[in-house]
Amino acid sequence: MKKTLTILLIITLTLGLVACDKDKKSSSDTKTNEQTTQQSTTDADTSDKPTKSGDKTETLPNDKKDDNTENTIPENDVLCIEQHKEIEVKGGKLACVIALPFKEEKSEKKYPVVLIVPGSGATPKDGIANGYEKLAGQLAKHDICSLRYDKRGMFDSSNIKVEPEKIRVKDLTDDIKVLIKNLNEDKRFDGVYIFGHSQGAEFGAIAAKDENIKGFISVEGAGRKISEVMVDQIKRNPFNPESVIEETETIVKSLQAGKVTEVKDVNLRMLFNPQIQNFWIDWMKLNPLDAYKNIAGVKSLIIQGKSDIQITTKDAELIATAMPDAKLVIIDNLSHILKSDKPLSEKPDKEEYKSHITLYGDNEAPVNEKLVQEIVSFVKEK
N or C: the chain end with fewer CB closer than 10 Å? Predict the structure, then answer.
């Protein structure tokens, strides 16, 4: 039973904020076995040395370098420059990586930049199974820059002291606003596009209101309240017994009523840790469609995959109702972690569900080609 629920709790959209690491650790390999998916971490080196991305890196000369930046060339899917930078926000500094086309170092040309707003919980700046890092490399190949980051209190942004009981949605969306402003002030870029993934779609939309952005991209974002999504995810997992589903529904109802609640099942305590229940209460008050409606006038793209075990095409269609001028793209083989997989049945059995989970540990698999094509076309569209 414990192993079964570990699948649910690690890969669910609603990973707990309490998972932030106080010892400056960064995500590395994700290991899987027959019924569990567990993330491992290694110590991150934040000193003034090349940061490893791919198999090796080489430090670049950089006349513009200051105390908070460092340029490296990652040996990855494509050749690009990665600039490691710390950006000041309330309470400390966010650890960021800006991916640039290799030619940028010798060019005065301005490029569009995509701000990658990550999914929920302890998602590292490189993404689950390095999905964000690989996406950044592919975008750089097409002369599109990007910024990805560790959220406050997590991994290389652990210098920001976070009290889990006090963190709220606004803390995270305010950080996104700071990043948007920072990119707009950077003279290398001629326009900011938000790429909001999963939770990042809703929070990116909240942050984008009244900000200067050229475009908004929702990728596998929820169109329903998080309370409904949480219950749906747990019901959709064929490994979960009825007792777990029933307790989840009871807990969610209590949180919707604004009440911190006791969690009986030992495995569900990871998801509904008392330290972060106030965050769930805060988030459950929000309807994501309100956030999308507020930026309906912004050029937008909505992408959803049929291989996603966490979010459904129904969510993308709901978002589209709030953004009637947005382009809606459904990709048959796109998984939740931006990689390719077989389309998922409406009610997957244990074998099918288990086969999709293994992808969460595949750090080498490339990002979905159709996803990259749609983003590049959207950003470069005049």
Answer: C
For 298-328, the pLDDT digits (tens) are 999 999 999 999 999 999 999 999 999 999 9
Report yes or no: 348 and 118 within 8 Å, Cβ to Cβ.
no
Q: What is the pLDDT of residues 73-132, one digit of tens each?
A: 555 455 689 999 999 999 999 999 999 998 755 668 899 999 999 999 899 999 999 999
Question: Considering the domain 2-228+280-380 in this protein, what is its CATH number?
Answer: 3.40.50.1820
Q: Using alpha carbons, select from 102, 98, 95, 25 the residue that is nearest to residue 58.
A: 102
Instruction: Answer yes or no: are the C-beta atoms of 13 and 119 closer than 8 Å.
Output: yes
Q: Which residues contact 184 (CB under 8 A, 6 or more apart)?
A: 192, 212
Q: Mapping DSSP to helix (H, G, I), strand (E, B) and coil, where does residue 329 land?
A: strand
DSSP at 340: B
Report whether 307 contacts 223 (CB < 8 A). Answer: no
Tell me if residue 147 falls in helix, strand or coil. strand
Position 93: which residue type? K
* Predicted model pTM: 0.85
